[in-house]
Amino acid sequence: MERRKFVITVTNQFCSMGRVIARRMSELLGVECYNEYIVKETAHRLCLPADVVDQAEERSRKIQRDTVFPTLIQRLGDQTNETQNRIFRTQADTIKALAEKENCVIVGRCSDFVLDELDYAVHIYIYAPFSDRVGHCIKELEIGEDAALRLVTEMEESRIAYHLNYTGFRPDDKSHKDILIDSSLLGVEGTAQLLTHMVRQKFQLPA
After folding, report:
1. How far is CA 130 from CA 21, 42, 134, 145, 151, in A?
2. Contact at 8 Å (CB) between 106 and 23?
3. Are strands 179-182 and 121-127 parallel, antiparallel or unpaired?
């Protein structure tokens, strides 16, 4: 029997555990999860350091020079807007190629916009309460609460600015999403299981 074609895009708030959930979904569905690969492939094509590509979103908001995490927020240094534009276009080409090639889960990189017209794509947005995200940030990065509060706020503002700039809508715009879910409700495993069940129902996939 011919395998049903599907692509899942996962957009997430910073430290909402969205990337972990996306990876777990890919395991449950038996497909690849693409995140770092898109960064590496884009960096290779543009002959740029991978960290420059990885932090393109974070440069969309002007961050003060005394930010608590200058190496994380300002990795692009003095790169121009044209560099960001080239990164976006190359990432978009990579995302389209992956979606055409195979069933997969794609994390971030405005993939919801890039694949908006695909009838076999499901677009998911994962969010969580601010306090939960700060807690995840403290645990994952091993930093203090004040630093985590600032980082979560700065990163979220940057992601929204980047998404608005290249897509014309916010990453949490429900008119461009099929599913929006609070990851704190069921946790990583429960959220991944629920979303996977919904995908299987949508595309009539075997359990």
Report:
1. 18, 31, 6, 12, 12
2. no
3. parallel
Within 13 Å of residue 72, how many CA atoms lie on the same side as its CB?
Answer: 12
Cα(first)–Cα(last) distance of the chain, in Å?
15
What would the pLDDT profile of 122-149 be if each residue is shown by its tens digit?
A: 999 999 999 999 999 999 999 999 999 9
**Contact yes or no for 82/64 (Cβ under 8 A):** no
Query: Which residue in 203, 202, 195 sits closest to 27, CA to CA?
Result: 195
φ/ψ of residue 103, rounded to 5: -70, 135
Contact call for residues 116 and 97 (beta carbons, < 8 A): no
**pLDDT tens-digit map of 104-128:** 999 999 999 999 999 999 999 999 9
Task: Indicate the residue type of 188.
Answer: V
Closest CA to 57 of 179, 140, 163, 141: 163
Q: Which domains does the chain have, with CATH numbers?
A: 7-203 (3.40.50.300)
The answer to whether the CB of 195 falls within 8 A of the CB of 124 is yes
Q: Using CA atoms in the order 23, 24, 25, 27, what is the torsion angle rounded to 10 degrees?
A: 90
What distance in Å separates the CA atoms of residue 191 and residue 25, rounded to the nearest whole number?
A: 9
